[in-house]
Amino acid sequence: MFKNVIVRRPCRAMVDGITSAPELGTPDFELALRQHDAYIAALKECGVEVTVLDAADEYPDSCFVEDTCVLTRECAIMDNPGTTSRNGEAKLMEPTIRAFFPADRIEHIVVPGTLEGGDVMMVGDHFYVGRSARTNAEGIRQFIAILERYGLSGSEVPLEFVLHLKTGVNYIEDGNMLVSGEFIEKPDFAAYNKIVIPEDEAYAANCIWMNGTVIVPAGYPTVLARVQEAGYRTIVVDTSEYRKLDGGLSCLSLRFSSLV
Ligand code: CIR
């Protein structure tokens, strides 16, 4: 169960955020704010305390807080984001993390290692880490070494076609995993009950499990039906403006339980 969530309000500069899909258009900032409000309301419905950080205009992508750190049941691992315009976001987040984790349980990924939280998928005490354009081999080596010091484990999953690991695969607990594209046949995930995401709904592979409820992006009826058939209560949240920046439901929050 998660007790806490951290989000950051989108900033006006989000219209200049990084995107691989400019054909989707520029995000509508006012609509993005309303969608963020609905996202926060959905999280609160799942019984967590939500910390809402102020917008940070110097970082256009800073609403995607998931990439700044990885919060485990034993420690916080501050990331070293692998793209220049976002690199400072982890330092910006650290004072907030200090309110939830004791100082001796806050670790860091350091140069030449890079790692972004979107590449980390937690399955119990094991963490799958995508090796991507943002997360490199040295970042993964450091990350797994930190996990092992705390009795946790990690393994690398190379990826080719998507931005982050969780762009294409997400664990929704109880042995159930949403898998799309290049992740459908990966041997790493063979043991899970795979819910296969159709190609035309690939964006909705990025759902989040929140204390028994699964939050699903609006506009993906097949995925919604499959998640409901698997027995979950669902909440639908529209993330259309974040999709224009390659962002999804998981990217917009840090989900964890405070250690203090
Ligand atoms: C970026 O390219 O970094 C942002 N526009 C999107 C980040 C999405 N974050 C995530 O998947 N965890």
Can you list the strand order of the major beta sheet? 2-1-15
Q: What's the name of the CATH homologous superfamily?
A: L-arginine/glycine Amidinotransferase, Chain A
Structural class: alpha/beta
Task: Compute the separation of the termini in Å.
Answer: 16 Å
- Radius of gyration, taken over Cα atoms and rounded to an integer in Å: 17 Å
Query: CATH top level?
Result: Alpha Beta
Number of domains: 1
Judging from the principal axes of the Cα atoms, what is the shape? globular
Write the layout of secondary structure elements.
Layout: E1 4-8, H1 29-45, E2 49-53, E3 69-71, E4 76-78, H2 89-97, E5 106-108, E6 120-123, E7 126-131, H3 137-149, E8 153-158, H4 165-168, E9 169-171, E10 176-179, E11 193-196, E12 208-210, E13 213-217, H5 221-229, E14 233-237, H6 240-243, E15 254-256
Describe this structure in words.
The longest helix has 17 residues, at 29-45. The chain is globular. The protein has 260 residues and is an alpha/beta fold. It contains six helices and 15 strands. It has a three-stranded mixed β-sheet with strand order 2-1-15, with helices on one face. β6 (120-123) and β7 form a beta hairpin. It has a single domain (4-256), classed as L-arginine/glycine Amidinotransferase, Chain A (5-stranded Propeller), CATH 3.75.10. Citrulline (CIR) binds at residues 17-18, 61, 64, 66-67, 86, 118, 163-164, 166-167, 245-247, 250-251. Citrulline is lined by residues 17-18, 61, 64, 66-67, 86, 118, 163-164, 166-167, 245-247, 250-251.
